[in-house]
Design goal:
Blueprint: E1 47-52, H1 58-67, E2 71-77, H2 81-89, E3 95-97, H3 100-104, E4 111-114, H4 121-130, E5 134-137, H5 145-158, E6 162-164, H6 172-182, E7 189-197, H7 214-230, E8 233-241, E9 246-249, E10 253-256, E11 262-269, E12 274-280, E13 297-303, E14 306-311, E15 319-324, E16 331-333, H8 345-355, H9 363-382, E17 386-387
Parallel strand pairs: 1-2, 1-4, 2-3, 4-5, 5-6, 7-12
Antiparallel strand pairs: 7-13, 8-11, 8-17, 9-10, 11-12, 13-14, 14-15, 15-16
Helix pairs in contact: 4-5, 5-9, 6-7, 7-9
Length: about 400
C-alpha cells in the first residue's frame, strides 16, 4: 500500500476508490440482532470492525483496515448520515447508521474505531464500552485524565479493552532510538527536544474550540515519543497561549479561538532526563502539514557520549541521524519506515485481537500522555510546576 500522510486529513471519501475496500458482504443495515455483553474475540479470524466518524480521518483509516488480513469493516456511523452512507457504498455490504445508539443495536462487531471530533471521544467511548465493545480511539482518549481513567476502569469491569492513538512507538525509527538509549550507546541521556506545527487546519472548528487545541492534536505525538523513549514524566512546566484570536473554517465560518494554538512544555522524567516539546497552529513550514520531503530532525536527543536526531515528523519518520564519541561522524540509519504508517493503529489492534500478538501501544501510556496535556494547561493557568500521578509500563521497546 502506498504510504499516506496526515495531509489526507483534509481529504474525504471522494479520493478513495471502491476497489480499495475488500470486506466481505454482511447483513443489511436494519433488523440485525444487537450484540450484548463483552465481545467474543475470534482466534485467527477477521475482527469485525465498526467505525464511527466518517470524516477526513476515516478516509485514511478505512483503506488501511481494508488491507489488513485481520479486519473486516461491517458497520459505519456518522451524525451526518450521508457521510456514513457514502462510505458504506465503497465497502461491499457494510452497514451504516445515523446515530451511535442505532449502531450499537445493529450488526454485531468486536472493535469500535473512534475517528470523531476529539471533544466526543470520551462520551462515545463510554457508550461503546457499556455495550461490550472493545475500542480503538484516535487521540486523545478522553477530554481529561480523570475521564480517561474512568473509561479504562469501566472497560476492565466490562471485560473489554481500549487503546488510544498515536501509534508512533511502532515505527522502526523509534525502535532504533530506543535500542541506542537502552544499550547506553549515547552515554548518560541529559536532554531531548521535539517539535511539530503547521498553519492550522481549515476544515473544522473543533480544533480551536474548548477541549481542542494544538496539544491534543499535534503535541500528543511528541509527548508520546519522548515519554516512550525516556519513560514516564513526574512533573510538567508549561506555557500556552493563543496567537491567532479568530479563524475562518469550512464548517462554521469565522470563529473565536478558545483552545491554545501555541504551546511549550518541559518535562522532568522519572529517569532524570529533561525533555521539551513545542507545538502550534502558527508555524510556517515549507513542507507543510504533510511533511513530505522533510530532511530536518523534529526529535533530538543529547547524551554524554552521543546525540541522535529523528528526521521528519515522528508520525512519518524518514531516518535517524546519530553521532557518538566512538563514531563522531554523523551517519543516517533506518531510512526505511517499512510498513509503518501513522494510521495503522486500529489494524495493529485487530491483529492483536485475532492472534494474541502483543502491541507496543499501551492504554496506560495514552492516559499518561493525556495527563501531561491536562497538566500543561494547569501549569499555564497557575504558573506552577504540576506533579503527575500516572505511569505506564516502560521500556516500550526492550
Amino acid at each position: 500500500m502506498k504510504k499516506m500522510t496526515r495531509k489526507s486529513f483534509i481529504s474525504n471519501f471522494g479520493v478513495l476508490g471502491a476497489a480499495a475496500f475488500i470486506s466481505p458482504a454482511v447483513l443489511g443495515s436494519t433488523g440485525s440482532k444487537a450484540q450484548t455483553g463483552p465481545a467474543i474475540l475470534p482466534v485467527n479470524k477477521k475482527i469485525r470492525v465498526g467505525l464511527i466518524g466518517c470524516g477526513s480521518v476515516s478516509g485514511v483509516y478505512l483503506p488501511h483496515l481494508a488491507t489488513c488480513p485481520y479486519a473486516e469493516v461491517v458497520s459505519l456511523c456518522d451524525i451526518k448520515p450521508e457521510r456514513a452512507q457514502k462510505a458504506a457504498k465503497k465497502i461491499n455490504g457494510a452497514n451504516w447508521y445515523p446515530h451511535i445508539d442505532k449502531m450499537m443495536a445493529g450488526v454485531p462487531f468486536d472493535l469500535l474505531v473512534n475517528t470523531t471530533n476529539m471533544q466526543e471521544h470520551g462520551r462515545l467511548n463510554k457508550i461503546a464500552i457499556a455495550a461490550g465493545k472493545n475500542v480503538w480511539c484516535e487521540k486523545p482518549l478522553a477530554n481529561t485524565y480523570r475521564e480517561g481513567r474512568e473509561i479504562l476502569d469501566m472497560a476492565k469491569a466490562k471485560g473489554v479493552k481500549i487503546w488510544g492513538a498515536p501509534a508512533v512507538v511502532n515505527s522502526p525509527q523509534f525502535a532504533f532510538m530506543a535500542k541506542q538509549i537502552n544499550e547506553g550507546n549515547l552515554g548518560r541521556i541529559a536532554a531531548a527536544h521535539g517539535h511539530y506545527g503547521h498553519e492550522g487546519p481549515g476544515w473544522s472548528a473543533f480544533f480551536y474550540e474548548e477541549n481542542g487545541g494544538s496539544l491534543p492534536d499535534l503535541g500528543v505525538y511528541n509527548i508520546a515519543t519522548l515519554t516512550g523513549l525516556f519513560g514516564p514524566a513526574k512533573s510538567v512546566v508549561a506555557m500556552t497561549n493563543v496567537i491567532t484570536p479568530t479563524r475562518t473554517v469550512d464548517d462554521k465560518g469565522t470563529i473565536p479561538v478558545v483552545a491554545e494554538d501555541n504551546a511549550q512544555v518541559l518535562f522532568e522524567h522519572k529517569s532524570g532526563v529533561l525533555s521539551h516539546i513545542q507545538c502550534g497552529f502558527n508555524y510556517f513550514d515549507p513542507y507543510g502539514h504533510q511533511g513530505t520531503g522533510q530532511e530536518r530532525p523534529t526529535i533530538s536527543v543529547y547524551g554524554s557520549k552521543g546525540n541522535m536526531h529523528m528526521v521528519g515528523y515522528d508520525w512519518m519518520p524518514a531516518g535517524v541521524d546519530m553521532a557518538t564519541s566512538a563514531n563522531p561522524q554523523t551517519q543516517r540509519f533506518v531510512r526505511d519506515a517499512g510498513t509503518y504508517v501513522w494510521q495503522e493503529g486500529a489494524s495493529v489492534i485487530c491483529e492483536h485481537m485475532a492472534t494474541g500478538k502483543k502491541p507496543l501501544i499501551n492504554v496506560e501510556h495514552s492516559l499518561h500522555v493525556l495527563e501531561i496535556i491536562e497538566a500543561s494547561r494547569e501549569s499555564q493557568r497557575t504558573g506552577k510546576r504540576i506533579d503527575l500521578v500516572s505511569s505506564f509500563p516502560w521500556p516500550v521497546v526492550v
